[in-house]
């Protein structure tokens, strides 16, 4: 399979919505809600499982979770597109900021939020 | 940009977590919760705005939303990595399935869920 | 109605879970996830509607939303019970705090977060 | 302390919003988003904790979680009010339905969704 990148997905989603005259529903406000609803479908698969069970899903469950991750990714790309945000650039910047906020010597082995550092 | 960028981000996030000994906290169950918390921070920016206002954010607000989208993308990549799911492949499959579930003649101009088609 | 109704619901939910040996699944962590999943089912009903449409739901949609509100309320009561939190007392305290954070002269007619007051 | 019931809270929240001219922002669509954002603040407190840790929160953490539960309850009451839904009646009905969907002999000791019963 060839390399399908984010721009290709973005274009495909634009065409999908356009063909169905769905842009009228795709305000950023609405897309944030749809994104939230999809993430909750991921949560639903894990809510009664232990952390250990969540690492060892049977294949049928993994397939279902894969679908919810796909839906989440689709709405995230769509929302970023409507806001003219480049997800890759934004993610790189945020990782670099996180490296400042969570230096290894302070962050190692604990999950405290940086605001809780002394 | 080629699709090595998702892989690059994935690797970078692995190193970030490893250096901080954070894999212990990164069960799929926990990551789904973190993902959910970040999406809600996007929602918070839009909850009192009209749809029209959400399309025309002032620059400072847009910058804040960009950060939340970055955080969401980061946790999505991390969760997909821990579940060994390829986000691009999953998204393409889902778009193709959606093309079946939402044929243009049935879907055009309305936002009904496919389960509500006659 | 007196406030014994929240206590009655709380007791009923305790018995429901006990009879099914479900307390093992009802850690606060898990209950917060279940609560989140139910709220997202409310969101799903509104995501493609305009604000005006959301004020004028047809009866069948209103019935569905009522079920999701019920599920949300149930998990909220259950979570509060497991944490030994009194929802009514907590809510009154929070309203009183909000009256401080959002004085009428500052808050009137605008939806800014109190942290954005000059 | 006297008995503050749901109707009293509902009235108090009506007055709070009216005094601040906030009804313009309180469409059911918007309130569902605000509810979602508050629930995520609960999730945030538990995301890196184990289930066991979530049952044994230190007092300062418990106080913070109490505030988020209060905020969640407040938005739930407000949303139900705007939709003219009686939360207590809805909850009782749903528990009774759940008793049908999850009979003790099928549900005992397992967290399967009723749709997964043979």
Quick summary:
4 copies of one chain form a homotetramer. The first copy, chain A, is mainly alpha-helical and 118 residues long.
Strand content of chain A: under 5%
Taking pLDDT < 50 over at least 5 consecutive residues as the criterion, the unreliable ranges of chain A are none
What is the arithmetic mean of pLDDT of chain A? Answer: 94
**Span between termini of chain A:** 50 Å
Question: Helix and strand succession of chain A?
Answer: HHHHHH
Report Rg of chain A.
18 Å
Q: What is the helix content of chain A?
A: 55-70%
The helix-and-strand class of chain A reads mainly alpha
Specify the number of helices of chain A: 6
Shape of chain A: globular
Number of strands of chain A: 0
Q: Describe the oligomeric state of these chains in a short phrase.
A: homotetramer
């Amino acid at each position: 399979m060839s390399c399908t990148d984010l721009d290709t997905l973005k274009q495909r989603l634009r065409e999908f919505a356009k063909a169905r005259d769905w842009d009228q529903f795709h305000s950023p406000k609405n897309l944030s809600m749809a994104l939230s609803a999809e993430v909750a479908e991921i949560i639903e698969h894990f809510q009664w499982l232990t952390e250990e069970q969540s690492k060892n899903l049977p294949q049928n469950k993994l397939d279902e979770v894969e679908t919810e991750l796909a839906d989440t990714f689709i709405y995230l790309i769509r929302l970023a597109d409507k806001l003219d945000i480049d997800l890759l650039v934004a993610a790189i910047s945020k990782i670099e900021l996180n490296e400042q906020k969570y230096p290894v010597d302070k962050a190692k082995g604990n999950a405290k939020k940086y605001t809780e550092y002394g």
